[in-house]
């Protein structure tokens, strides 16, 4: 019994032994075929290199033919498939019987042209092997795209170490990013208060975060220095203050953990001194010539006789802070330096607190000729320091120099009829400008001319107070208005009219009024003007208006076509029509029998009107032997509508 009880245990041990032997034999077979694995767990390359070199091994055996597939694992890593690398899908590697060497894979790497600031990774996987197993500890490998070694964050710097601004202005401070090759950069700045501080003396407008940021894509590729701005506003606080200042300082951004590139450095000019100019709100006053009021009134004008002097007053008004000075100088107007007056240029000065007036003396030179008109010399303020000069109305004054005589040389006007008689006959002449009594001691009506047809226009020019033995010259020019020179009239340019000593005749000038080539119903006008007179002055009637009314040739019938077959009369007008109506035109025709080739007889119907341009007069058939008809006049009223 004991022997039979031990048999089951022995059979169990035998079965276990057989299984162990079979497993051992299987391992020997597997070991003989080898197994697949990546040669390295990590491969590295760069975008500039453009390829990743990966090797796959068959180790621990080479019996039989074997193969394995290689693929990219989607979504694993930071590299973007198709943009950073060419993804692999079921790429097969095959070993023949007895082959155990490494197989290479060349994987294309793409360069997107943008700076790479951190490593990019993706992973390859071995799968679906045939004829050999895959080593589970080396069935994956990681490819790392390493950033290039020349990637640098650059430096940051102000353009100037110091700047000065005034109150009531805005300050823009440029900051440069220099020699950076990264895609983006940033730097912080600090505002350090000194004698000036925010918010009372200045205010930061932008960026409020006190962080300047750059993106390289926002600038051209060939630009080495890229600029961002700090903008500050300096208000005018209305207080008297001396110069104040504060600092702007650049500070690098703290790098994040694992950042191998860095955040840049502060360059040569990392600190700027901003000075607010002073003293501020100084009441230095304003410099000007004497005037009836300050600051809007014009300066006082002066006069003197030839050989005399004029005293001109210069003022400092509305403030006395600080020293100031101004240069006073003469300038020729109608008077000439050295002939009519003594030229001078002088600098006047005021001390702080001084607002007393300054005076200068203008000396004129004697010229006994009574025929000389009044001459004028200009006095100007210029080159001021410490205080501004008032506007042109008060920074320039004039001194008139008159000859020592009571002789009045008279004036020159366009000749006119006695206006008092015209006013009494036609009271409503308010639209006509009347000359004043200070020229000829009589009421004078300024003339105007109205022309209704082309031709020669004769204009008279008169000289008042002609008994004095003074020669006079005056220039006559035409001034274009709505009329066109050379089209509506022949222009006059610098036409001189002269009177000799004692000459009292009325002078005449001739002007040709032309026929315009085109029709225009509107009145047109131009002027004759007297100017550049010597020996006298121009009077109030120195401008003559010439009005052209109906000068252009009116439209009329130039030719016609009479079509008896169609029963229509077509008229042709001589000029292009721009008016809304056309005057009545008359055409005399012989009304009598007319035989066509069709043996029909025609005659004109009774007198009638039409309002159409082309369809004028209809005709109708008559009897075969009509009596002779008298002459008839066909009157046509043409209404031209919307003619070009």
TrEMBL record:
Keywords of the record: Calcium, Repeat, Signal
Residue stretches making up the Calx-beta domain: 25-127, 430-531
A single Gene Ontology CC term: membrane
Segments traversing the membrane: none
InterPro entries for this protein: ADGRV1 (IPR026919), CalX-like_sf (IPR038081), Calx_beta (IPR003644)
Pfam families with a match to the protein in the record: Calx-beta
Record-level Gene Ontology MF annotations: adenylate cyclase inhibitor activity; G protein-coupled receptor activity; G-protein alpha-subunit binding
Signal peptide: 1-30
Residue ranges that the Swiss-Prot or TrEMBL entry lists as coiled coil: none
Gene Ontology biological process terms from the UniProt entry: cellular response to calcium ion
The organism's place on the tree of life at top rank: Eukaryota
Name of the protein described by the UniProt record: Calx-beta domain-containing protein
């Amino acid at each position: 019994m004991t022997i039979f009880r031990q048999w089951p245990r022995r059979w169990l041990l035998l079965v276990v032994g057989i299984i162990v032997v079979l497993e051992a034999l299987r391992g020997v077979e597997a070991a003989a075929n080898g197994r697949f694995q990546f040669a390295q767990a990590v491969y590295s390359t760069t975008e500039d290199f453009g390829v990743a070199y990966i090797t796959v091994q068959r180790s621990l055996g080479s019996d039989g033919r074997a193969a394995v597939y290689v693929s990219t694992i989607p979504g694993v890593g930071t590299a973007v498939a198709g943009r950073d690398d060419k993804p692999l899908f079921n790429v097969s590697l095959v070993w023949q019987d007895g082959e155990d060497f490494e197989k290479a894979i060349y994987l294309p790497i793409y360069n997107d042209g943008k700076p790479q600031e951190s490593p990019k990774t993706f992973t390859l996987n071995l799968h679906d092997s045939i004829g050999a197993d895959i080593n589970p500890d080396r069935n994956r490998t990681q490819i790392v795209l390493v950033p290039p070694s020349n990637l640098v964050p650059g430096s940051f710097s102000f353009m100037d170490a110091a700047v000065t601004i005034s109150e009531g202005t805005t300050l823009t401070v440029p900051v440069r990013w220099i020699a950076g090759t990264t895609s983006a950069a940033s730097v912080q700045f600090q505002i350090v208060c000194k004698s000036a501080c925010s918010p009372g003396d200045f205010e930061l407008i932008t960026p409020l975060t006190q962080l300047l940021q750059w993106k390289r894509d926002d600038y051209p590729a060939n630009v080495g220095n890229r600029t961002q701005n700090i903008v500050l506003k300096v208000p005018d606080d209305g207080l008297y203050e001396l110069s104040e200042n504060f600092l702007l300082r650049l500070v690098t951004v703290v790098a994040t953990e694992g950042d191998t590139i860095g955040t840049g450095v502060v360059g040569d000019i990392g600190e700027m001194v901003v000075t607010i100019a002073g003293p501020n709100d100084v009441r230095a006053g304003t410099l000007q010539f004497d005037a009836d009021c300050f600051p809007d009134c014009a300066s006082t004008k002066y006069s003197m006789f030839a050989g005399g002097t004029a005293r001109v007053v210069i003022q400092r008004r509305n403030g006395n802070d600080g020293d100031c000075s101004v240069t006073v100088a003469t300038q020729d107007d109608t008077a000439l330096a050295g002939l009519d007056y003594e030229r001078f240029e002088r600098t006047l000065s005021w001390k702080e607190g001084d607002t007393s007036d300054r005076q200068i003396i203008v000396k004129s030179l004697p010229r006994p000729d009574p025929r000389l008109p009044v001459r004028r010399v200009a006095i100007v303020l210029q080159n001021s320091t410490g205080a501004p000069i008032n506007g042109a109305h008060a920074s320039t004054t004039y001194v008139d120099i008159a000859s020592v005589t009571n002789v009045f040389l008279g004036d020159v006007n366009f000749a006119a009829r006695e206006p008092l008689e015209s006013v009494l006959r036609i009271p409503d002449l308010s639209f006509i400008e009347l000359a004043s009594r200070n020229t000829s001691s009589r009421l004078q009506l300024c003339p105007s001319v109205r022309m209704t047809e082309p031709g020669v226009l004769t204009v008279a020019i008169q000289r008042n107070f002609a008994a004095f033995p003074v020669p006079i010259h005056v220039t006559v020019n035409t001034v274009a208005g709505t009329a066109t020179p050379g089209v509506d009239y022949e222009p006059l340019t610098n036409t001189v009219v002269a009177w000799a000593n004692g000459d009292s005749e009325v002078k005449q000038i001739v002007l040709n009024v032309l026929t315009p080539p085109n029709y225009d119903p509107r009145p047109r006008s131009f002027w004759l003007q007297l100017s550049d007179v010597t020996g006298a002055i121009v009077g109030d009637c120195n401008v003559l208006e010439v009005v052209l009314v109906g000068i252009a040739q009116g439209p009329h019938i130039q030719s016609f076509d009479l079509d008896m077959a169609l029963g229509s009369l077509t008229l042709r007008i001589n000029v292009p029509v721009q008016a809304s109506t056309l005057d009545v035109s008359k055409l005399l025709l012989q009304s009598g029998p007319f035989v066509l080739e069709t043996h029909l007889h025609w005659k004109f119907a009774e007198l009638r009107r039409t309002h159409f341009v082309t369809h004028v007069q209809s005709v109708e058939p008559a009897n075969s032997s009509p009596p002779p008809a008298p002459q008839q006049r066909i009157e046509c009223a043409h209404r031209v509508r919307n003619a070009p």
